[in-house]
Amino acid sequence: MTDNHSHHDHDNHDGDDGHEGHDKHAGHSVEMFRSKFWLCLVLTIPVVIWSDHIQMLLGYTAPAFPGSELLEPVLGTVIYLYGGLVFLKTAWGELKTRQPGMMTLISLAITVAFVFSIAVELGFDASALWWELATLVTIMLLGHWIEMRSISSARGALQELAKLLPDKATRIVDGETEEVSVDELAEGDLVLVRPGERVPVDGVVREGKSNVNEAMITGESEPVSKEKGDEVIAGTINGEGSIRIDVMGVGDDTKLSGIMRLVAEAQESKSRSQLLADRAAQLLTGVAISVALITLVVWQLLGSPIDFTVVRVVTVLVIACPHALGLAVPLVVAISTTMGAGSGLLVRDRRGLEEARDLNAVIFDKTGTLTLGEFRVVNIDTGEELSEEEVLRIAAAIEAESEHPIAQGIVKSADERELDYPGAEDFQNITGKGVVAAVEGKEYQMGGPAMLEGADVPENLRAAAEEAGDNAQTAIYLISDDSALAVFAVADAIREESYEAVQALHDRGIEVAMLTGDSQAVADAVASQLGIDTVFAEVLPEDKADKVKELQEQGKTVAMVGDGVNDAPALATSDIGIAVGAGTDVAVEAGHIVLVRSDPRDIPRIISLSRATRRKMIQNLWWAAGYNIFALPLAAGVAYAWGILLSPALGAVLMSASTVIVAINAQLLRRVDLDE
């Protein structure tokens, strides 16, 4: 692809906004840190070997040669300027925005060591700190290289999504095919998608039949069958059939781009935990500088040599770098957002995912969310001689001629059972009663109770029709030769997944409510089947938001789940708005979270993801900030009387270790099972 996705490339910002969680590394790349680390490592080795301090500690003498006394200052200066420049530049950005943080501390530490060592070379009576400076910069570069790698792997979601789009497409013009780049396609073009190819654009099938794997967009593992008139989505994989599609959306207008925008926005939207981490990092910076100054003053008052004191100050500055803190939350955010996107949960607003762990009530809009939003046969009772499949086959043959929603529901029920039904003849509509037609040479009537005049109805069918009425379902009879052969109970069918979804929410201790414009009888019938706690029936669309408020006034944290059409006000009023089945139109603006597929089981998954994300954030904040409680006093030299002293290099190792632990701990979030 050409430049379509450049706006998703997070690593291109200016280095100025050091306050952003991710943007401490704005403009930095994994490669840069890697190459700087290796070069500085090579330069550090001779600095350490020729250091007087190390020679004395290990009891050896490094070979002398003309100019060997210049080895340390020259290489040390190169390491400071080449390896340290990246820290100095970013620190300048932090100071310009008056938000000193991690980079400011690192820069202070290496600059103090550098300036002090230069002063010693110019005649100040003390020991230079070249080897401390060199090892410090090298270890810092290593820590940043590892950290950048984990950030880029967490952000990989967007690159992975971008890779889903093919570069080339086969356009059909006047019956001839031509290979063109996807960017050249325009709305209204006709594109051929061969078996096994990725669909290059959003469009509608004009001819051909196939199964398309949409898992990468919807998380739905089963391939979806496509024929004329069905929509296909860019980035999905065509199955065994070849299809021709009319182009509807290209480039930034495709659903995939919409999803990428959502993921990008979610990863950048500031969450409360991030603000907490940022505040903690600033606080830690203040504490570190204060402790460094106190260390300087106290050791000087105690009469210590100045080089000893400076080493303590440098170690304090290094060990307190709130590096891991800067990483603790953004990494978890990036990974949880990616995990969500992979499971068909698109987080539009981070706070939605953050607050999901506190939910104690979920309100479902009934039609289209808990139910399919279209009629199906939910029960069949037959007389003596015919099987259920046989009567459904006949019914479908008759109703295939009718446009009525109930008739269509009967036909779809037969299709879903994969029944083959014949054509019907002499079809006619009898207004207010039903329909009449001949199937395989025999005449049948279908309709409600009005169709029954003079017909013989067996007792079990009468009972079945009454039961359907009690459950707010429509009873349709199949009649032939003045005798009723079967009763079909037709209703807006409950989704299979809804049963599991309600159970999973109850297992998590969450109250489930249902909101519908349908009559109380219909609502109660659905609620009793699903085991729903609270029912709001006969609610007008404009009053839905008030029902949400009603639960909120009882002190509950409420999620509203709806298909976003007339649910927008209720979605916006709720603590968390979850727009379902909105993969069809990613721009559902009211929801905090958008579910790509219409699967209500994704609601409990969101809560699990939210709780797991929270746990990881708290663990990371402890790893990141907690170790300072022990490390800072040690760095300042509190345990010197017992012979315990931390060198700046060991301080840098500890600080980098806490960063790496935080990065690895964040990656462990990927192992969480959202169905637990």
> What's the β-strand tally?
22
- Beginning-to-end CA distance, first to last residue: 39 Å
Number of folding domains?
4
Number of helices: 23
Low-confidence stretches: 1-23, 582-587
**What general form does the structure show?**
elongated
- Rg, rounded, reads 34 Å
Biggest sheet architecture: 7 strands, mixed
Q: Determine the structural class based on helices, strands and strand pairing.
A: alpha+beta
Instruction: Give me the side-by-side strand order of the main sheet.
Output: 10-22-21-20-11-18-19
| Percentage of residues in helical conformation | 40-55%
- Indicate the mean pLDDT: 80
Strand content: 15-25%
Structure description:
The chain is of the alpha+beta class. It folds into four domains: 3-157 and 264-335 and 618-667, no CATH class; 166-253, Calcium-transporting ATPase, cytoplasmic transduction domain A, CATH 2.70.150; 347-370 and 495-600, HAD superfamily/HAD-like (Rossmann fold), CATH 3.40.50; 372-493, 3-Layer(aba) Sandwich (Calcium-transporting ATPase, cytoplasmic domain N). Helices cover 49% and strands 17% of the residues. It contains 23 helices and 22 strands. A seven-stranded mixed β-sheet has the order 10-22-21-20-11-18-19, sandwiched between helices. A six-stranded antiparallel β-sheet has the order 2-1-3-9-4-7, with no helix packed on it. A six-stranded antiparallel β-sheet has the order 12-17-16-15-14-13. Strand 18, helix 18 and strand 19 form a beta-alpha-beta unit. Helix 4 (102-121) runs antiparallel to helix 10 (306-319) and helix 21 (602-626) runs antiparallel to helix 23. The longest helix is centred in the middle third of the chain and has 30 residues, at 272-301. The chain is elongated and about 120 Å long. The protein starts with 29 loop residues before the first helix and ends in a 9-residue tail after the last helix.
